[in-house]
Specification:
single chain; alpha/beta; Protocatechuate 3,4-Dioxygenase, subunit A; 2 domains; six-stranded mixed beta sheet; five-stranded mixed beta sheet
């Protein structure tokens, strides 16, 4: 077009993407363009504001690394991650929650009934559960990717004193879908505030705390992958989660147990905390 104006620019840009072969991608790009332009119109976006927005994204890219994604954290604090999780919910399945910026692929494989405690200080915890479909049928082929923070509230990517892959693993469930894992009780922590997302939180006078939680990804052939978190019922930050990840169904209670056989088998103290994690997966569409 030779005569681009403020009235026809948005339509011209959307039309320029209309030949994308993938129909879903074409729709997403068209809608993204529409809403970006609508945002600029609605706010009367200025040059200086536009430049600052671009600089904000540059700072997010500069601080990101293979073990830390500032863009994921940005999505989290804007509530986009949680919205995508909620839109993907399936009836009868365990609810999803945010992936977070500290997941890394390739955690060590361990047997069900292993321990992550090693030299980590903190309260000993036994996590046990069963992966089933929404009708309660065990999923013997399910795999679990698990990670959490240490007793000082930090993930290994945040703390040079921790070994790589500390307090994380992958587990193949047993034939009846059950699994066990000895670990420590996670702690509430501050999301990273040394980057542009921290700037956004400070200017908004928002808390940067996350309540204590375990992260879990569960996969099984023919079923929707579940990315979720499990929260400590006694945590003081449940109602002020910086990334809007808490769901009532994902808040669980620790119970004290003293089963000597279990304690001996998993290297737990005579009295230990236990949390039950039933996990239900929906079939793929």
């Amino acid at each position: 077009m030779k005569n681009i104006t403020r009235d026809n620019l948005s339509d011209a840009v959307k039309l320029s993407f209309a030949q994308i072969d993938n129909a879903r991608l074409c729709h997403l790009v068209e809608r993204l363009t529409h809403h970006l332009h609508a945002f600029a119109h609605e706010t009367a976006l200025t040059h200086s504001e536009w430049r600052e927005g671009i600089a904000f994204l540059h700072r997010a890219a500069d601080i990101s690394s293979p073990s830390r994604s500032e863009f994921t954290l940005m999505s989290d604090v804007l509530g986009l991650s949680s919205l995508v999780d909620l839109l993907a919910a399936r009836p009868g399945a365990t609810e999803g929650s945010v992936l977070g910026p500290f997941h890394t692929r390739g955690s060590p494989w361990m047997e069900s009934g292993s321990s992550l405690i090693r030299d980590n200080p903190g309260e000993a915890v036994l996590i046990r559960g069963q992966v089933t479909d929404v009708h309660g049928q065990p999923l013997a082929d399910a795999r679990i990717d698990f990670w959490q923070n240490a007793d000082n509230g930090m993930y290994w990517q945040m703390d040079d004193s921790q070994p790589q892959d500390n307090l994380r693993c992958q587990i193949q469930v047993q034939a009846d879908g059950r699994f066990e894992l000895a670990t420590i009780r996670p702690k509430p922590y501050l999301v990273p505030t040394d980057g542009p997302v921290g700037e956004l939180l400070r200017v908004s006078h928002r808390e940067a705390w996350r309540p204590a939680h375990f992260h879990i990804i569960v996969e099984a052939p023919g079923h929707c992958t579940l990315i979720t978190e499990v929260f400590d019922q006694g945590d003081p930050w449940l109602d002020k989660d910086a990334v809007f990840g808490v769901r009532a169904s994902l808040v669980a209670e620790y119970k004290t147990e003293t089963d000597s056989d279990t304690a001996s088998r998993l290297g737990l103290p005579p009295a230990y905390l236990c949390m039950d994690l039933p996990i239900r997966l929906a079939k793929e569409d």
